[in-house]
Every structure is written in C-alpha cells, then in structure tokens.
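Reviewers of the previous submission asked for a worked example of the structure-prediction workflow described in the proposal, so we include one complete record here. The input consisted solely of the amino acid sequence. No template or homolog information was supplied to the procedure at any stage.
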Amino acid sequence: MFRLGILNELSHVTNDESLHRLASVICQQRLSTQEAIAFIRKFRAFRQRSPAKAKALAKVLQTALNGYIRNHPEITRAKMLDALDKLENAIWNWKSK
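From that input alone, the workflow returned the following structure tokens.
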C-alpha cells in the first residue's frame, strides 16, 4: 500500500542510499504515516548543515566552558586565559581541508 504523505517526504531525500535506508526502517518497523513523516523530517533536519558562523561557534565554546567551570569550580581566570591562548594557537596552526 502506497502512502502519499510518506512518498512525498521521501521525495525530498536526495541521496539514494539514505532513501533506501529510510524506506527500509519505515517498512521494518511498520511506522504509521505520521511516525514515518516525523522520522524522515528528523533525519533531514539532522543531515542539513547550516553555514559556519562565528556566533554559533562562540555559543558552543561558551557552553563547553560553562560545563568545565561547573565541573572544576576551582579554575582560575588565569588558567582560563591560558587555555584560550592555547586554543588561539591551535586555530592559527589549523589547516583547512
């Protein structure tokens, strides 16, 4: 039985291998139309990458720093600045692909 909603969502998947894997999972797990559409949309959202942005990177780094501070409340400002210096050196030595 063909379900047009599922077929419509699958039509947005451009990679043949991904399309076959998604269809296989949907069939094997006997997902309802609503479940299958949600599954496909989550897959597509996960696969889509947004362009790199400094603000987004800063947010990720801030989150990591906050987590580190929570786990190591004894860290000093000097050690954090030393870590940033090391990170800056790593950035300058980074080679893009």
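The chain has five helices and no strands. We consider this example representative of the routine output the project will generate in years two and three.
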